[in-house]
Amino acid sequence: MKYEVGCDWCGQKMLRPQSKIKKHNFCCREHVRLFSSKKENPEGYAELKDFSNISARMTALNKKLNPVRTRDETRAKIRAKHITVGNGRTYEKTRGRHTHRREAEKKLGRKLLPGEVVHHIDGNRRNNSLDNLQVFSSQSEHAKEHGWKGGDAR
Q1: pTM higher than the cut 0.70
Q2: Cα–Cα dist 102/118, whole Å
Q3: 81 or 29: whose pLDDT is higher?
Q4: Rounded distance, CA 86 to CA 90, Å?
């Protein structure tokens, strides 16, 4: 079944199946270009380019469309499945952030500053216990701990 929609630029009526009806519909590519142009359509361009707080909007949309996947229990199952891959060379993550950075923030009682580096004292990237984490003020300080010359990170 097809539905009648109008072009957002010129208003021309078109028949489209429901699966092809979008927020903005156009009769030709030229009208897509004009609608998306800052010079030709300053108000519409501002609407299209409003990316403020997009992360929060995407999180809310994902929770709405995928409520089961975003539950803590489901996240824990997915995390447990992925944690054993990578031969221990990867850093564990919790809710999209490196766990060792979260734990270091708990230890310090504040957010990490830009440039601060979290070091695993025993060298085990999966050991995120508070007594195994050390915070350096910069990558060069961290490199000195490892004995790298001139910050030659490997």
Answers
A1: no
A2: 10
A3: 29
A4: 6
Q: What pLDDT is attached to residue 50? A: 56
137-147 pLDDT, tens digit each: 999 889 888 88
Alpha-carbon distances, residue 18 vs 4, 38, 132 (angstroms): 10, 29, 57
HSE toward the beta carbon, residue 99, CA cutoff 13 A: 15
Helices (H), 1-148: 29-35, 42-48, 54-65, 72-83, 99-108, 139-146
Reported as a single tens digit per residue, the pLDDT across 30-43 is: 998 888 887 888 77
**Which residue, chain included where needed, has tokens 């734990």?**
103
Note the maximum CA span of the chain.
Answer: 70
Cα radius of gyration (the chain): 25
